[in-house]
Amino acid sequence: MSIVLCVSPAYNEEKTVSKVVEGALKNADGIIVVDDGSIDNTYKEASKAGATVVQHSKNMGKGVALKTGFKKALEMDADIIVVLDADGQHNPEEIPKLLKTMNREDSDVVVGSRFLGNIKGMPRIRILSNTLTTRILRLYFGLPITDSQSGYRAYKRRLLENVEFSATRFSAETEILVDAQRKGFKISEAKIQTIYGEEESKMRVFGDTLRWIWDVDKQLLKSLKYKLSHRNK
Questions:
Q1: Number of domains, the chain
Q2: DSSP letter for each residue of 62-111
Q3: pLDDT band per the 50, 70, 90 thresholds, residue 126
Q4: In angstroms, rounded to a whole number, what is the distance separating the alpha carbons of residues 60 and 64?
Q5: What is the pLDDT of residues 132-184, one digit of tens each?
Q6: What is the C-alpha to C-alpha distance for residues 160 and 179, in angstroms, rounded to an integer?
Q7: CB atoms within 10 A of CB 219
Q8: H or E element that contains 30
Q9: Neighbour-count burial of 108, counting CB atoms closer than 10 A to its CB (0-12 exposed, 13-18 middle, 19+ buried)
Q10: What is the pLDDT of residues 196-217, one digit of tens each?
């Protein structure tokens, strides 16, 4: 029986984190909340709800929080790691959807895609940035995804033990997919809900998109070097 653990990066999510933790515990074997330097009661609320909480002394960015969470999950012998946000934008009840797709398609990573369903309620600027980044990833790397900015994902242990990423913010998630594709891991998608409430996104659309484009350019160069090195072997 596979051990399924959730990882949830959190920054000032005291209002929503307990609900996310409770939902995750109904659909997985445990959840690790990475409190990324919050200045509210995120740590207290996550702990009280039953999460294993790892705390950063200061805000270091989602990429760093993911590394911390993955390391802890692997130390806890997780076979599958499901990442979901702590702000309530991901419904924990959909964890079985990702796992079912992973099992059916024998995937190494399953990305939860809002664009396979109804995206009503998603801010237009997010639709625009997501469409742009998704098309770039398809053009540059042939990534078979429709929702490049989705952070709701399920990863197999073997993938996380072999991929590399260094970005400290949101482009870390793209870097993981690009390296996974480069190394021959299978990527699939599962349809998830589009949920937007009153929460304020931690993603700075323009700034993070520009940083994302810069990071993707570096990944393109890395991929070209990777292909050349393997061609010469």
A1: 1
A2: HHHHHHHHHHHHHHTT-SEEEE--TTS-S-GGGHHHHHHHHHHHT-SEEE
A3: confident
A4: 6
A5: 888 888 888 889 899 988 999 999 999 999 999 988 887 899 899 999 998 99
A6: 10
A7: 22
A8: strand 30-36
A9: buried
A10: 665 555 555 555 666 665 566 5
- Residue 77: CA atoms inside 13 Å, Cβ hemisphere, count? 4
- The band of 52, judged by pLDDT with boundaries at 50, 70 and 90, is very high
What average pLDDT does this structure show over 61-79?
97
Q: How far is the C-alpha of 16 from the C-alpha of 139, rounded, in Å?
A: 37
Question: Residue 29: which residues within 8 A CB-CB, separation 6 or more?
Answer: 3, 4, 5
Burial class (CB in 10 A: 0-12, 13-18, 19+), 206: exposed
Domain that holds residue 59: 4-231
Residue 55: strand, helix, or coil: strand
Residue by residue, DSSP assigns 146-210 as S-TT---EEEEHHHHTT-----SSTHHHHHHHHHHHHTT--EEEEE------SPPPS--HHHHHH
Query: What's the CATH code of the domain at 174?
Result: 3.90.550.10
